[in-house]
Design goal:
This protein has about 260 residues and is mostly beta strands. It has three helices and 14 strands. A 14-stranded antiparallel β-sheet has the order 8-7-6-5-4-3-2-1-14-13-12-11-10-9. β5 (about 100-110) and β6 (about 115-125) form a beta hairpin. About 25% of the residues are buried.
Length: about 260
Amino acid sequence: MKKVIAALSLSALLASGFSALDSYRRVPNNSFGPGEHIEYRVHYSFLNAAEATVEVSPTVYKVNDRPCYRVNVYGRTVGAFDLVTRIRDTWRSYIDTTAIVPQKFYLNIQEGNHRKEANVTFDHQNNLVRSEEEATKDIIKVPDNVQDVISGYFYLRTIDFNKLSVGQTLEVPAFFDKELYNMRVRYRGKDVVKTKFGRINVIKLNPVMPPNKLFKGEESIRIWVSDDTNKVPVKVEVDLMVGAMEMDLRHYSGLKQNLRFFK
């Protein structure tokens, strides 16, 4: 009898242990994976202003004992803009492959004379983030499944927008620059846009912007993503207080499925 009780106790202990280890949510993801590489060209009026690259490493990394996609986002000015304000930015997120939440975030900003570097580690078991920036270290309480600015975008790619009504707004908790905020995105239905590769069916999204001195209104950013399982942004328009910017798809490879363009 003692052996039976001991065996049952051990089973219960192991079960509770595995339950604790597996307390992360599970998000179905057919939209992206290792090896994805996307390049964009940014225009300001009729001028080429910048280039941006979003790439998912072909290698899966282990961070906080969890398998993660490593996503790098690079931004750089080109042409005349590079002479006026030289930008070389690197953003990096290690995104949990199962829960699609960040385990670690890194930022290196080089914009003119401005420099900034930050490291953020996420503790989702205890709902904490540890932020290291310059000489300061902070521990901040956060809500469940909090995102960084990169992982939040990849999480939105897993959403089935066919289940939303036009005008419906999604809210995702996010952490950036030592602050918590709600990442809000409004679904605006479907459309067709023209690209350098041809025309493509798209989903229209509006990130809802809070009042600020840079963007013109809460719907000043318009994003068109491919209406397929990839949900890759193919075009972005931004209304600024002074002028407007447009970002177009320049090159892509390693997608989950081929983008379907037509004439």
